[in-house]
User: Fold this.
Amino acid sequence: MKKHIPDIILTKFLRLMAFISGVFSILLCILIIINFVQLKRTDPLNTPALTYLQEQLSKDPGNTALQQEIRQVDLLARKAFFTSQWQIRTGAYLLAISLILLVICLKSLEMTTPKIPSMIGTGHTDSLERRKTERRWVVIAGMVLVVISLTLAWFTHRMLTGSSSAITSLVNQGSEKDTSAKSNGTTPTVTSSSADSTGLTKETSSTESEAPPAQNEIRANFPGFRGPGGNGVAFQKNIPVSWDGASGKNIKWKTEIPLPGYNSPIVWKDKIFLSGAKENQRAAYCFDANSGKLLWTTDLSKIQGSPAQMPKVTAETGLAAPTMTTDGHRVYVIFANGDLAALDFEGKTIWTKNLGLPKNHYGHSSSLIMYRDLLIIQYDQNGSANVMALAGKTGDKVWGTSRNVKISWASPVVVNTGNMTELILVAEPDVISYDPATGKELWKLDCISGEVGPSVAYANGMVFSINEYSKLAAIKLGPSATLAWENNDYLSDVPSPVAFNDFVIVVTSYGAVVCYDAASGKQQWLKELEKSVYSSPMIADGKIFIMDKQGTMHILKADKTLAVVGESALGEGSVCTPAFGDGRIYIRGNKHLFCIGK
Assistant:
């Protein structure tokens, strides 16, 4: 039987591709295994350079040059680990692709090669069977090698992720305790309400005016995470700059919070609202702003449609991370299992619903925000990213927009950018602006990567996004959104930036505070706090307020020239962003709610 020349060429090509794919797969497997062995033999948290520098710093804690050198070594180490993560992930993908190509080539050879009748005598049967057995064992050995390699690639990725986060913590000076708060409290009042068959609970009676609050009324209060619009700028005056939790100086009151949570306080007139949760209990709280008295507790543990089990979350996120919001008529709360509720100012449940179990590996943390009478929710989950607006009065869905982005832990921001009000969200890979009334996309810019936690900041036609292992990106708004400048020297993975007038402030989780010129990106000053920070910086009364995890508030002048106003200790740790009233600061500590004021 003769073959045509094209058939011979095709056969040779398929054999060559199969050979190349096979060799390439074996090399990738070997490299993945070697990489895993090397990583196991090398402890990234105890490199000789970092260990030596740490020892030197312990002998001379005030050596700023040495601190900066540690930062540089740490930055290089973290960048190297992030590159290793990309290499492992890419190697696994290439291995899968080469295996698929190998299988396709072998199957194609089998289909295109003519079957020749066997002319082998019975004396050669044993030899043929032996070859088949050898080939079978070769295939089995190859499959085992591939499985081992892919498994080790997965473990290597996990090890790198953990090491990368830990290296950042290594350079923070002093030992720090776990920030998770554990308190056992009792709830003085428990309210309940009836639900319809859809799981949406409603309270029909209302005597309040439903007109949305005016801009001056919103600014006079503190209605959500990072204040009006979620932008990190408060408008209250006469803010205290000195207090001491140990002696009680300028501590007007402090009240124990019954359930743990990492959401920040919100304030409307003389009421403060918080939420808390444990595995089998979820609740919203209202405190009197003047006395600290717990006015009411609404138990929200049994919302219809809620999943049977709470999701697994990390200790740094918890089950009640998102900050509540208010429209001046009702308050709104969301938990890590997707339970959402609206309450009146007396603690009665207006409506409840479940948005579906959030799918992410830390826990849902995007805070709620209001636009006029619409409750806006950023719900960027694994495999289902979207943003939606619900009618505040009824909980009915007004609009919903799907998003082609990855998981995000950032919170939405609503700002007037000149000619319009924009809803600005950030998640890998885009910063995207929407019309908050309709959900229509206005613009987007591909400028961020990684697991995004910080929200954006806005001032004077400029939007600023940031993420660790990515970059600080300055976006200039106009006929279209364009990248004005970028910087990757000091990057944050938790605290959000804040912009004011013609500068932008970045606070890293390891305690570096940096001021940049908003227009050019030129660094104006750098301040090392030498303590970890999870709270987002706030600007109020011409000052920058930065709370570190140990509970010390660092107060700086809001200017392009560095000027330290003071430092004040709360007396307990805190990872929450402060809220402001005229002449007051409200801070959620690990166990108590504090009111600071003269």
In short: The chain is about 25% helix and 30% strand. The chain has two domains: 5-113+134-170, 215-597. The longest helix spans residues 64-112.
